[in-house]
Amino acid sequence: MSEPASISNGIAQRYATAVFELAKDSKDLKGLESDVDALEAALAVSAELRAVISSPVYTREQQSAAMAGMAKKLALTATMANTLALMAGKRRLFVLPQLAVALRDKIAEEKGEVTAEVVSAKALTKTQADKLAKTLKAQAGKTVKINATVDEALIGGLIVKMGSKMIDTSIASKLSALQNTMKEVG
User: Fold this and answer.
1) For the residues of the chain, what is the DSSP string, one character each?
2) Structurally, how many domains does the chain consist of?
């Protein structure tokens, strides 16, 4: 990991721990989870928001005003609104995407969930996703939330990433392995 990324992750982890503990103490993890959903959605759709949090051109006051307006519009909890105001005052808004990821991880851990990144050649049906989640739950011992994406280049099969484990049953990887074997033979 590069040093700036490591520093950003460290900052995000500290804020995430503080916000998570405050939400847990006030028994408002559901509110925190909805805040994280709203923040991730806003970051995904708003280029202006991404510019405000990452550009040094904006002053602390402009960033603070933008965060206050966003918190009001998204109906964020007081804890999250205050955290965003603090981060704007300290010029730490650039870690907002990492903060959302860290909070999502802490919430999932608290709920006993693990996320599996699943890439398939075609979109999974509800039945397939449920069956896969059940199979992965038996292996992980925790509730599994599936984050599915589609990559037609796989031709068929799945790539499942859960924690540090990866299972690749895609036809594309099998063809690649076969191609490498053929090269070794002759």
Assistant:
1) --HHHHHHHHHHHHHHHHHHHHHHHTT-HHHHHHHHHHHHHHHHH-HHHHHHHH-TTS-HHHHHHHHHHHHHHHT--HHHHHHHHHHHHTT-GGGHHHHHHHHHHHHHHHHTEEEEEEEESSPPPHHHHHHHHHHHHHHHSSEEEEEEEE-GGG-SSEEEEETTEEEE--HHHHHHHHHHHHHHH-
2) 2
φ, ψ for residue 32, nearest 5 deg: -65, -40
- Do 26 and 70 lie in one domain? The reply is yes
> What is the share, in percent, of the chain residues with pLDDT greater than 90?
88
Mean pLDDT of the region 47-57: 94
Domain end point (choices 54, 89, 109) = 109
- pLDDT surpassing 90 at residue 6: no
Contact assessment for residue 117 and residue 161, using Cβ atoms and an 8 Å cutoff: yes
Tell me the residue range of the domain where 63 lies: 3-109
Contact between 160 and 167 (Cβ < 8 Å): yes
Provide the whole-model pTM.
0.75
Place of tokens 């909070």: 103
Q: Which two tokens stand for residue 113?
A: 């969930």
